[in-house]
Design a protein that fits this description.
This protein has 3 helices and 2 strands. By secondary structure, the chain is of the alpha+beta class. The chain has a domain of 51 residues.
Length: 88
């Protein structure tokens, strides 16, 4: 068995850009009726932020930044490449 002396150049086929598809309220209601209760808050966060699964599942409380008005918090994802975000 012999190994290649160099990697072959492979052109990745580029398909058409995916069209954004926001869920309608009816589709969102239907989705939440089908989800088990323990996933509903996570999916609600994903639906409202557009974060990817990896970003949501790896969130840490120390990334939360408290907002005084309206007394809420937001998560600020670190820029140290713990995972690849959409904007990386």
């Amino acid at each position: 068995m012999s190994w290649l002396s160099s990697r072959p150049l492979i052109d990745m086929e580029q398909g058409p850009a995916k069209k954004l598809y926001p869920l309608s309220w009816e589709e969102q209601d239907r989705l939440f009726r089908e989800l088990p209760a323990y996933l509903q808050r996570m999916v609600l966060y994903k639906v409202n932020t557009g974060c990817r699964e990896q970003e949501v599942c790896q969130l840490r409380w120390d990334w939360e930044v408290k907002i005084p008005e309206p007394k809420k918090g937001v998560f600020v994802l670190p820029s140290n490449n713990l995972f690849e975000t959409k904007n990386s």
